[in-house]
Q: What sequence folds into this?
């Protein structure tokens, strides 16, 4: 038996997604507001000299955000009612606040709600402190690769300094966001492939490898990636895999303990089913796209500790780009 | 919506067409200590993809219901007897993840064999073909083999679980006891309600590999010429719009009705399955020998990795989506049910034929209301 598809519903699922301007349903007074403007173009110069086009979200209140990649973080506190307003600016976009369990209209997925061509204010109230991110969920395969994402940090009610309420404290905060780039994809139109064209979005062949917006090998020296700390300080690393590779992250010479996974605490007294995960020095942490891991590192001996990120293919786990898909950075302890 | 399954008997080139419903709610269960009989025919078929392309494939078929790739559900301790009929043109060997290969003989083309074994510990497995490495599996010879725990599956506090009580870790006992409490108001997980036990079996299809198999080429997937480059991505054999509208695939329920979902990957890609609307609890995994492992650390996740041949049971709590502001709950100004996607975040899997986002590995779950019997 074959059930007939509804042609209009089928079209709205992908090719012809509803594009609607509506007020935020069940709107509450916000405790904090953000604005993000869609699809600013920036060029990142790769180690071989090629400029590759990326797209980011900008904050219209902050000119410096135009050059930020990943996009400027959104940082809020647990319990705040957040209004995050998207100005699509051109074409259609959405914001999915990844890990925020919002209502359908505030979840930013076009095919179950709508895409935004003008403005929409997403509403949510973070419930659990931890590491999240936001990204465009239109033609996600392409827009996410183009770079339309940024970190979303939820601090505990008292603010930064602890990962979650009564959770581990930290003195130094670091952001490691491995990403990979297939330059062919960065020449495609925003709605490439959506209505039936074969534009090769099944073939992802990354040539460049970045951490927190910095292409390797500049990751070894760039302060956006390199961590500096003193003996005895507690380093919180917020690790988001924003690539389409399986990333193998190895911290050489330093133990780490994972206290947060996908924005949920480990070792919280009311959640005895989830315990922190100890990673002895040299352990390889495997993550796939969108997974977050919050690690605390407390160095006891001065030194320069190497961190390795291997980007591996989703088929066969070969290191990408014929073995060249590796980035390094360092934790400098004085 | 069901993908069309076009059946070719005997020679794959002789395209005899039939439209058959692919039943993913197919099941048979028996109580501990009895024998349960299945019959599976290995067939060469053609399947229509989400974009209308027709691709050669193979499948196990239940000859009575005509369902392809039927999940086999048994109870722990049951003697399982499977009659296997090989209607394909090459020898085949049946396999079940976590079970010794010696249980299963090679069956010549046109041959029949019956295998018999005892269902072991409760958990989720994949049955598949393995005489040519992963080839038979990725062209479609696979399905879910599910072992239910029988009567002895309660925590000491009396909460039902999908595993026998002797295998329950402290973390598993704690999370099943937590259902109906504090942040999870409502009921316990209810194994008597089949709506609360779902299957998401992932796979991926490379038509070029399938075409080589149709030609009878001895495909060696380790050779670059046969490198697996999938073009279609499925959940329970369906893609995109179809998998998001399939009654057997889409979990539905009210707040307080937790649902077990058996997530498995029969394909060759690693997937990063991401769910919207609720975090899930990761209950089980597999070890390097393919046996079920019961998690001692139950993580709350919105994304979990599914390597090839992995099986991970997760519990979708059906709790209030906890970032909807408390003052806005339940939503009054947007339509119910609340719809949430589940999709692989390694987004190439969201395509079909190189584009057509999101006609790939995606489905939905539906939150019908704040509690059963309360109008919204």
A:
């Amino acid at each position: 038996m074959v059930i007939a598809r509804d042609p209009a519903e089928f079209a709205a699922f992908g090719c012809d997604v509803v594009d609607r301007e509506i007020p935020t349903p069940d709107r509450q007074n916000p405790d904090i507001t953000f604005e993000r403007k869609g699809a600013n173009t920036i060029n990142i110069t790769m180690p071989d000299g090629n400029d590759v086009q990326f797209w980011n979200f900008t904050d219209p209140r902050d000119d410096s955000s135009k050059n930020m990649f990943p996009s400027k973080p959104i940082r809020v506190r647990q319990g705040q009612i957040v209004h995050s307003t998207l100005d699509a600016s051109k074409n259609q976009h959405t914001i999915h606040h990844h890990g925020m369990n919002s209502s359908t209209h505030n979840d930013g997925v076009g095919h179950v709600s709508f895409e935004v061509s003008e403005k929409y204010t997403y509403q949510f109230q973070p419930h659990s402190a931890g590491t999240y991110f936001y990204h465009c969920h239109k033609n996600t395969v392409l827009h996410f690769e183009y770079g339309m994402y940024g970190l979303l940090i939820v601090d505990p009610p008292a603010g930064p300094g602890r990962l979650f309420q009564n959770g581990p404290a930290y003195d130094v905060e670091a952001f490691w966001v491995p990403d990979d780039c297939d330059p062919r994809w960065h020449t495609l139109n925003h709605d490439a492939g959506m209505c039936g064209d074969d534009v090769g979005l099944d073939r992802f062949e990354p040539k460049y490898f970045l951490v927190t917006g910095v292409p390797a090998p500049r990751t070894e020296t760039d302060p956006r990636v390199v961590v500096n700390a003193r003996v005895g300080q507690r380093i919180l690393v917020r690790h988001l895999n924003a690539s389409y590779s399986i990333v193998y992250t190895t911290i050489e010479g330093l133990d780490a303990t994972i206290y947060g996974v996908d924005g949920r605490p480990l070792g919280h007294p009311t959640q005895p089913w989830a315990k922190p995960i100890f990673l002895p020095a040299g352990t390889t942490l495997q993550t796939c796209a969108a997974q977050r891991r919050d690690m605390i590192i407390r160095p006891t001996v001065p030194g320069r500790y190497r961190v390795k990120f291997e980007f591996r293919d989703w088929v066969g786990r070969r290191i990408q780009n014929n073995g060249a898909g590796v980035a390094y950075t360092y934790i400098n302890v004085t | 919506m069901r993908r069309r399954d076009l059946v070719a008997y005997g020679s794959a080139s002789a395209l005899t067409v039939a439209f058959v419903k692919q039943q993913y709610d197919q099941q048979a269960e028996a109580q501990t200590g009895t024998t349960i009989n299945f019959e599976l025919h290995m067939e060469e078929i053609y399947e229509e993809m989400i974009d209308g392309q027709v691709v050669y494939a193979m499948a196990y078929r239940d000859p009575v219901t005509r369902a392809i790739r039927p999940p086999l559900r048994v109870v722990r301790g049951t003697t399982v007897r499977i009659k296997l009929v090989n209607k394909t043109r090459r020898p085949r060997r049946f396999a079940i993840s976590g079970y010794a290969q010696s249980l299963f003989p090679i069956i010549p083309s046109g041959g029949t064999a019956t295998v018999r074994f005892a269902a072991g510990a409760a958990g989720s497995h994949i049955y598949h073909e393995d005489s040519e490495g992963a080839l038979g599996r990725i062209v479609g010879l696979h399905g879910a083999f599910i072992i239910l725990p029988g009567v002895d599956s309660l925590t000491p506090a009396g909460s039902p679980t999908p595993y026998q009580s002797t295998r329950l870790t402290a973390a598993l006992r704690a999370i099943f006891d937590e259902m109906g409490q504090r942040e999870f108001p409502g009921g316990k997980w209810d194994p008597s309600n089949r709506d609360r036990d779902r299957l998401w079996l992932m796979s991926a299809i490379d038509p070029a590999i399938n075409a080589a198999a149709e030609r009878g080429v001895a495909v060696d997937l380790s050779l670059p010429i046969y490198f697996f480059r999938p073009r279609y991505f499925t959940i329970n054999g369906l893609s995109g719009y179809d998998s998001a509208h399939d009654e057997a695939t889409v979990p539905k329920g009210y707040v307080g009705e937790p649902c077990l979902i058996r997530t498995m990957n029969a394909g060759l890609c690693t997937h990063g399955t991401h769910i919207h609307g609720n975090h899930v609890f990761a209950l089980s995994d597999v070890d390097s020998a393919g046996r079920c492992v019961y998690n001692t650390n139950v993580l709350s996740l919105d994304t979990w990795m599914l390597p090839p041949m992995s099986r991970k049971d997760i519990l979708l709590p059906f709790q209030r989506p906890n970032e909807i502001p408390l003052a806005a709950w339940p939503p009054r100004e947007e339509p119910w049910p609340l719809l949430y996607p589940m999709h692989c975040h390694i987004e190439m899997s969201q395509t079909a034929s190189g584009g057509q986002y999101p006609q790939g590995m995606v489905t939905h779950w539906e939150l019908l209301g704040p509690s059963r019997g309360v109008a919204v």
Summary: Chain A touches chain B through 80 residues (CB under 8 Å).
